[in-house]
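I have been asked to look over a protein record a colleague put together. The record follows directly below this note.
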Amino acid sequence: MRGHVLIAPDKFKGSLTAAEVAGHLAAGLARAVPHVPLDRLPVADGGDGTVEAAVACGFAEVRTEVSGPTGRPVAASYAVRDGTAVIELAAASGLRRLPGGTPAPLAASSRGTGELVAAAIERGATRIVLGLGGSACTDGGTGMAAALGARFLDAGGGPLPPGGGALRSLASIDPGGLPSRLRGVTVVVAGDVDNRLLGPDGAAAVFAPQKGATAADVRALERGLARLDAVARRDLGAYAADRPGAGAAGGAGFGAMAFLGATVRPGIAYLLDLLGFPARAAGARLVITGEGSLDRQSLRGKAPVGVARAAARLGVPAIAVAGRCALTGEQLRKARLQDAYALTDLEPDPERCMAEAGPLLERLAGRIARDQPALGGAA
């Protein structure tokens, strides 16, 4: 396909999935410029919605039951294609999986994520793409590793209870069956968080309060993660705490690197390649991307900026849609976005924007068709 418009948005969090955003934009554009071919490619940056984006791009969805962050069973899914499995931590170990939404900052575990990895390997996956984000736990990825055969032991040789709060009592790590389980398997972490494991910018200090941790909990979790780092260095020769991304998802980035041998890749850039963006964008007249809020956080490697930069490398102009846009024209240009359209341009009430995002996106598509020269508009 050439001369087409590629619609490649991320989700509008709390309102529409990436596929729904793409669908509404396509519906509006089809009415406004029916002669222009349209192609939809929902995207994600490694957080919530990554599996859904992969499924929308042709991966098969596999549903299973795993342990939630507090141990209760939850239904979760991952995506597979040609030996590659896409897994998002949030699906099993995320805040949205907490029973009743009640935080468990000291006891929540990443075990269910490890169970998803194990299920994918048993199905024949030889490459695991792990998206980190939305975590309910600060356990340094120990639950994930335990589900794959590692043992985290106290001074008496017994297994530690789940969660980051117990890590202060960690005495030794036995890799158990983990090495054999992962033989021949490549693990890649796709994420945009560059925090280290420990310190004022680390997993406990920055992210644990978002999971319900008090100041005392944060101190306890920091001590536990420091103990985990020390024992992992001594018992496994794993020096991962100071690597960028180790603090992601409550230290699950550390666990993926230290226990699963994972490499870390910038989330959106890696996933765009995995989802086939370069081939789908080649020859396009315009790429439309977007997310719920375009703001300074977007500039730190979020999906719309990653899409715009990838499009620029192909010589294709890109614009963005959003629920709200807090970026200046200069910031947009530096991000390689030629323009941005916000739902708040049509409806100033944020609550109505959330509730009526679909119809508003379709109206916004008509404005894009009138404005954009690539679509015959006058801008």
